[in-house]
Amino acid sequence: MRFSISKFDEGSKARAGIIETDHGSIQTPIFMPVGTVGSVKGVFHRDLRDDINAQIILGNTYHLYLRPGLDVIRSAGGLHQFSSWDKPILTDSGGYQVFSLAANRKITREGVVFKSHIDGSKHSFTPENVVDTQRIIGADIIMALDECTPYPCEYAYAKKSLDITHHWLQRGVDRFRATGPVYDHQQTFFPIVQGSTFKDLRAQSAEFISSMNCEGNAIGGLSVGEPEQDMYEMLEVVNNILPADKPRYLMGVGTPVNLLEAIALGTDMFDCVMPTRNGRNGMLFTWEGTINIRNEKWKKDFSPIDPSGTSFVDSEYSKAYLRHLVISGEMLACQIASIHNLAFYLDLVRTAREHIIDGTFASWKPTVVKQLQQRL
Amino acid sequence: MRFSISKFDEGSKARAGIIETDHGSIQTPIFMPVGTVGSVKGVFHRDLRDDINAQIILGNTYHLYLRPGLDVIRSAGGLHQFSSWDKPILTDSGGYQVFSLAANRKITREGVVFKSHIDGSKHSFTPENVVDTQRIIGADIIMALDECTPYPCEYAYAKKSLDITHHWLQRGVDRFRATGPVYDHQQTFFPIVQGSTFKDLRAQSAEFISSMNCEGNAIGGLSVGEPEQDMYEMLEVVNNILPADKPRYLMGVGTPVNLLEAIALGTDMFDCVMPTRNGRNGMLFTWEGTINIRNEKWKKDFSPIDPSGTSFVDSEYSKAYLRHLVISGEMLACQIASIHNLAFYLDLVRTAREHIIDGTFASWKPTVVKQLQQRL
After folding, report:
1. At what angle do helices A228-241 and A256-264 cross, to 10 degrees?
2. Are the Cβ atoms of A75 and B302 closer than 8 angstroms?
3. Which of A25, A126, A354, B317 is the most buried (most CB within 10 A)?
4. How much is the average pLDDT of B153-161?
5. pLDDT of the residue at A238
6. Known catalytic residues of B?
7. Confidence (pLDDT) at B165
8. Distance separating alpha carbons of residues B163 and B158, to the nearest angstrom
């Protein structure tokens, strides 16, 4: 993996860069659609590539490990082959889903033991075996095992958890460096900053993570319920420490406004289920603000879903038609809203990037943030 | 509407024809995907048009009447406008869903009174108002209100029911002829032959329906549980009576083999939820036979879903990947299977048509029927 920065914004810490992988390049800042079990819910890979213009997607190690399982993925020649996606893939370590989905989980310094949410079978994730698993999945970017602390979180717990996360990181880095790719493309490894909402812990974690000298770094444990201001403060502390010449990935974030604010703070990569999950519930993100398409006011609004949208659904379907499909519980509603929202997220980061390159990002952002916060 | 027959098959009663409507022409024999509430479940209209090559789709009057309701559809300028589908649409009368879905239904010579399955609200369908409703929906082909008898059915009930169906038909035809289209395209009206599995009632009904001199005729009340042989026998009786120079539409049928047998008996139009409904359950129809993609045997079969399939999904995705998505309950599985099955059904009738035109239909059919009946 190579990362180069094309332009630093003068009015903020935003940067426009390019990540190059064996599966193609990624223009940053970038949003990565979440492809849980190897499919972005409700979206054909063709549309992800040609309509949404996704440059990289995520896979969830926890889900993929349980279903279809490593045996199938390895036999297929990796997740790219298995799922027919030839652009870059990033996988999380599986830790987050173990903490949020699995039953009877038990964390020790050794790792985490848990029961599958599907059939109750017992499994164990260690810093080493999640690297091995992600080697087999074949992700271009693989993530360290960490504990994502909940919010609110006692200082003592956050400190103790951070100690385990750092211990796991060293073991993960060691395993990554002692092993090679399973298929014929290179893989890279990102460590994750934790530390809850405590500035000193975040700083300490960012220092430790930086010292690992990996090709990119991630920030986890944010957007888990804390006030947005806390998230931005943590991000500022962390981004001031993480090396400027490496991509910074803010995990699981967030709203369109969150993305712009985090970009202004020097963040380069994002993923979130919000565009697809909220889309399935009838919430649309647009440049003019958010739309709850279930509202009565759209019942006879036969105007296009989003006249300034980039997806084919934006001009092909009307708000009234989409509302009808949502109210009727039709699958097509989920498909239309998901594709619209993902195309919007990609348009958002692409436009932000253009403004960074033009040198107009700092003046553009406040106006757009105001628009994005409107409810239509 | 105009119907012309390009070729009569010499070895059977099959015919290849063309139906011309104000929304374009339809090459028969044709299969019509079912667009229940104005959307074919899980399929974008773009893919319906360009990938599946659908020439006409169905809408369900009962569903559309309840949601979004006639007020919205009329305001939109009809269902074509509302749902962004500019090719032909056929709507059923709503009767079938009243009998299968609605609560507290009560049939009289006047019509049928029922309660909505959605909110329990009370409604009434009459032979006249279902014509008015379909005028407002704006379907190119609109259907008469009938009672679809269940199977098995006592002779006395079938006879009494047929009497009501014929009474309703006369009133429906009168209403249709006394009214005009609501929008700027022509509409046509098809009556429906009933009579359960009784040859004399079927013959009597076909005679009465023919006497209405409509531009096309439908056959209802088949594929409701009776042995397939009974269905073919009824079809033979009915098709011998219905005028040969008008399209014959067999409602709600069926499997690929049913279609070929019915085509051989002189039937021109079909609709069925089977390709989408069975697809959502993991059943795929192919030229080589049916596939239950949930079977363990496909777990590591990384070959394309259907090498001879015409849809983009057939070559883009593997059987193993689709199986994984079905087992995982992913929405994308429903989308892939639906689009595959619909594309196959359209390929089936298109190929049958080519063989009719080539004069090879009678020799081709038995071989294909044998293949289609295999379970892979």
Report:
1. 30
2. yes
3. B317
4. 97
5. 98
6. 92, 271
7. 97
8. 9
Give me the DSSP letters along A253-312: ---HHHHHHHHHTT--EEE-SHHHHHHHTTEEEETTEEEETTSGGGTT--SBS-TT--SH
In this complex, which of A67, A72, A300 lies closest to B320 when CB atoms are compared? Answer: A72
Long-range contacts at A324-327 (CB < 8 A, ≥ 24 apart):
A324/B37, A324/B38, A324/B67, A324/B68, A324/B72, A324/B82, A325/B37, A325/B38, A325/B39, A326/A282, A326/A293, A326/A294, A327/A294, A327/B67, A327/B68
Question: How far apart are alpha carbons A308 and A319 in whole angstroms?
Answer: 14
DSSP lists the bridge partners of residue A188 as A141
| CA-wise closest residue to A222 among A244, A202, A247, A241 | A202
CB contact under 8 A, A42 and B325: no
Of A67, A317, A328, which is closest to B328 when you measure between CB atoms? A67
Which two structure tokens, joined as six digits, stand for B99? 């009998």
Residue that has been written with the tokens 């009915």 in this structure: B238
Please give the average per-residue pLDDT across B258-275, as a whole number. Answer: 98
> Which of chain A's residues have a Cβ under 8 Å away from the Cβ of B86?
none
Across the interface, whether the CB atoms of A302 and B81 are under 8 A apart is answered yes
- Cα–Cα distance for residue pair A196/A202, rounded to 1 Å: 7
- A23-48 in b/e form (b: 16+ CB < 10 A) is beebebbbbbbbbbbbbbbbbbbebb
Task: Flag whether pLDDT at A240 surpasses 90.
Answer: yes
Q: A–B: how many Cβ contacts below 8 A? A: 119
Does the distance separating the beta carbons of A81 and B312 come in below 8 Å? no
B94: Cβ–Cβ under 8 A, 6 or more apart, which residues? B60, B61, B62, B65, B125, B130, B133, B145
Does residue B91 contact residue B36 with C-beta atoms inside 8 Å?
no
Residue in chain A closest to B280 (alpha carbons) equals A331
Strand order in the sheet with B248-250: B30-32, B269-271, B248-250, B217-219, B192-193
CB of B127 closer than 8 Å to CB of B118: no
State the ipTM, two decimals: 0.97
The answer to whether the CB atoms of A42 and B300 lie below 8 A apart is no
**Chain A CB contacts of B44 below 8 Å:** 313, 332, 335-336
Smallest CA–CA distance, residue B72 to chain A, in Å, is 6
pLDDT surpassing 90 at residue A102: no
Q: Which of A41, A44, A300, A301 to mutate to test the interface with B (most CBs of B within 10 A)?
A: A44
- Residue A134: name the closest of A89, A91, A84 by CA: A91
Cα–Cα distance measured from residue A166 to residue A7, given in angstroms and rounded to the nearest whole number: 32
Q: Which residues of B touch A299 (CB under 8 A)?
A: 68, 72
Tell me which residue of A82, A189, A86, A73 sits closest to A131, measured CA to CA: A189
Task: Report whether pLDDT(A100) > 90.
Answer: no
- Find, among B237, B234, B242, B277, the residue nearest to B258 by Cα: B234
Question: How far is residue B117's CA from residue B122's CA, in Å, rounded to a whole number?
Answer: 10
Structure tokens at B45: 């209209």
Residue type, position B118, single letter: I
How many Å apart are CA B344 and CA B256, to the nearest integer? 9
pLDDT at B347 over 90: yes
DSSP state of A45: H
Question: What integer pLDDT is reported at residue B188 of this predicted model?
Answer: 98
The 10s digit of each residue's pLDDT in B49-89 is: 999 999 999 999 999 999 999 999 999 999 999 999 999 99
- Residue of A9, A47, A268, A271 marked active site: A271
Rounded distance, CA B3 to CA B24, Å?
12
Measured between alpha carbons, how far is residue A174 from residues A140, A142, A228 in Å? Answer: 18, 14, 35
- Cβ contacts (< 8 Å) between B84 and chain A: which residues? 316-318, 321
Among chain B residues, CA nearest to A44: B332
Single-letter code of the amino acid located at B138: G
Please count the helices (runs of H) and the strands (runs of E) in chain B: 15, 18
Query: How many other CB atoms are there within 10 angstroms of residue A4's CB atom?
Result: 11
